[in-house]
From TrEMBL:
Homology family: Belongs to the ABC transporter superfamily. Drug exporter-1 (DrugE1) (TC 3.A.1.105) family.
Principal location: membrane
EC number: 7.6.2.2
Domain ABC transporter: 6-232
Organism: Streptomyces bungoensis
Subcellular location: Cell membrane
MF (Gene Ontology): ABC-type xenobiotic transporter activity; ATP binding; ATP hydrolysis activity
Keyword Membrane: yes
Protein name, per record: ABC-type xenobiotic transporter
One CC-aspect GO term: plasma membrane
Length: 306
């Protein structure tokens, strides 16, 4: 039987007329990589801050390793690592001085701090002022400061926001390693590919509430969405494709051609692929099933969020 690292039950937080967190219930197992997803304003950051013990809930129960994180519990501080959505470092301190400072808060010696700096690939930037680092380097330093005391659970608030693709991938590798070493990782993100690749389970939030929880692949299967089969335009006309699909018993499929791709949406892709293969129309073939993004959009809607 797995052991819960964190349990939240009926957690609520209000700011004036805004119900930022509205009855959130979570159970996060020890060693799990857990994602909290949601559009801007869904309550992700407030929820994370309550779980960390940084912010007091109006209602509800939170247990972190069986103890309440609020009011700030000194027994938990060495067991928790935190990377906030925005981090500011001391202007005059170098990268090495910064991580050594954070290490000193937990009575961790300088050698361990330097080892963590190497771990995140920042040793060669040790003498660079922390505020002169690039976005990806600053995020790695922020995560290193949260890991330097070897915590059991790490909270990360949108750790790859604003990073270029290469920096994001590098951080993914680091976070995978952190989790595979046995640490529990809890992160918020609005990058659906990130959650799908990294997380064992996710909770989708909207307007302060958890709408759905589960492994990304299971949530996608529950959606039962169409499979989209696309090929390069010009190989078959949409009219002919519809006739061929009807003859093959796949007349419920929809066919669209935007001048670049001929796309067939269907729940039974086998006959579609057979038709395309039989007529030599496989150039540019692409088969796309539902993704976590489709689940997210179905649950939270498609309207623009500032």
């Amino acid at each position: 039987m797995t052991t819960a690292a964190l349990v939240a039950d009926g957690v609520r937080k209000r700011y004036g007329d805004i119900q930022a967190v509205d009855g959130v219930c979570l159970r996060i197992e020890a060693g799990e990589f857990y994602g909290i997803l949601g559009p801007n304003g869904a309550g992700k950051t407030t929820t994370l801050e309550i779980l960390e013990g940084v912010r007091e809930p109006d209602e509800g129960r939170i247990e972190l390793f069986g103890k309440s994180p609020w009011p700030r519990n000194p027994e938990l501080l060495t067991r928790i690592g935190v990377q906030f959505q925005a981090s500011s470092f001391f202007d005059k301190l170098t990268t090495r001085e910064t991580i050594r400072l954070f290490a000193s808060f937990h009575r961790v010696d300088a050698r361990q701090a330097d080892a963590m700096l190497e771990r995140v690939g920042l040793t060669e930037f040790g003498k660079v002022p922390a505020d002169k680092l690039s976005g990806g380097q600053a995020q790695r330093l922020s995560i290193a400061c949260g890991l330097v005391h070897d915590p059991e659970i790490v909270f990360l608030d949108e750790p790859t926001a604003g990073l270029d693709p290469q920096a994001r991938r590098n951080l993914w590798d680091l976070l995978r390693d952190v989790n595979q070493e046995g640490r529990t990782v809890v992160l918020t993100t609005h990058y659906l590919d990130e959650a799908e690749i990294l997380c064992d389970r996710v909770s989708v939030m909207e307007r302060g509430r958890v709408l759905r929880t589960g492994p990304p692949a299971a949530l996608v299967r529950e959606l039962d969405d169409m499979v989209r089969v696309s090929v390069e335009s010009g190989q078959l006309t949409p009219v002919l494709m519809r006739e061929l699909l009807a003859a093959a018993g796949a007349g419920d499929a929809t066919v669209e051609d935007d001048g670049v791709s001929l796309t067939v949406a269907t729940r039974t892709p086998g006959p579609v692929l057979s038709v395309l293969g039989d007529h030599g129309a496989l150039r540019g073939l692409e088969v796309r099933g539902a993704t976590l993004e489709d689940v997210f959009l179905q649950l939270t809607g498609r309207e623009y969020r500032a």
